[in-house]
Amino acid sequence: MPELPEVETTVRGLTPHLTGQRLVRVSTLRPDLRRPFPVDLAQRLTGSIVTGLSRRAKYGIIATDRGDHMIFHLGMSGSWRIGNGEPGKHDHLLIDTTAGQRLMLHDPRRFGSVDLVAGDPLTNFPAFVTLGPEPLSDAFDVSYLARVLAGRRAPIKAMLLDQTVVAGLGNIYVCEALNMARIAPTRAAGDVSRAKLAALVPAIKAVLEASIAAGGSTLRDYKQPDGELGYFAKDWRVYGREGEGCECGGRIARIVQSGRSTFSCPKCQR
Ligand SMILES: [Zn+2]
């Protein structure tokens, strides 16, 4: 499932293929993904020039010189393919550029979405309005985290997955960061010490940055046409490693919190 690092890698991978390009043709091959494509998507994007790409949480944003922003979410299985060939069964949106390239949004399970927003998407796209700060931004620091978690009785893991607290963090990255910072995922968020929060903030940034760096190297292997802007397997510290050893010598355990698997080390995470 594409997480923040995969979306960041995707945006960086698409940028040189789209920025400055006029979109000669934009077409959808079915009416919807998780929800319908905007009915005027092709009309508003065709002929426009891409002025830049960015990311907010797990959304990629393609800005055009008409002030429109195409906002994509990769859902469970989405990815972009770059090439110049015919679309396959699971390619649902095609973008042809003046450079003669074709970008195809590939999404077998179709949990992704595409929206079109005029003007500033940070204020005009409803899904963005309530989001917390980006975890890799300077706004996400110890003071901020201590302030929003103060007095909260919910488990620290649940609070970090709350998109209004911090944007775009997924299950894997929260498990990994809590292990790095030696915090029990079940601990009440308001009871995590300032010293532990001071370890947690850089742990979150480090685990995301390591994955972005790994994705970047994966991407370089896929330079050829028809290459997929792919995802990458990682050697996780705790995620998916129930019963294996933690670096402290403890044994990694799996519990279920809010219906999702949590992996942690009961020995060093307190
Ligand atoms: Zn441990």
From TrEMBL:
Q: What is its EC number?
A: 3.2.2.23, 4.2.99.18
For DNA, which residues are the binding ones?
H90, R109, R152
What is the required cofactor set for this protein? Zn(2+)
**Keyword field contains Transmembrane:** no
Q: Where is the FPG-type domain positioned along the sequence?
A: 237-270
Q: Which GO terms describe its biological process?
A: base-excision repair
Write down the NCBIfam families for this protein, in alphabetical order: fpg, PRK01103.1
Family statement drawn from the similarity comment of this UniProt entry: Belongs to the FPG family.
Q: How does it assemble?
A: Monomer.
Functional note: Involved in base excision repair of DNA damaged by oxidation or by mutagenic agents. Acts as DNA glycosylase that recognizes and removes damaged bases. Has a preference for oxidized purines, such as 7,8-dihydro-8-oxoguanine (8-oxoG). Has AP (apurinic/apyrimidinic) lyase activity and introduces nicks in the DNA strand. Cleaves the DNA backbone by beta-delta elimination to generate a single-strand break at the site of the removed base with both 3'- and 5'-phosphates.
This protein's name: Formamidopyrimidine-DNA glycosylase
Q: Which organism is it from?
A: Sphingopyxis bauzanensis
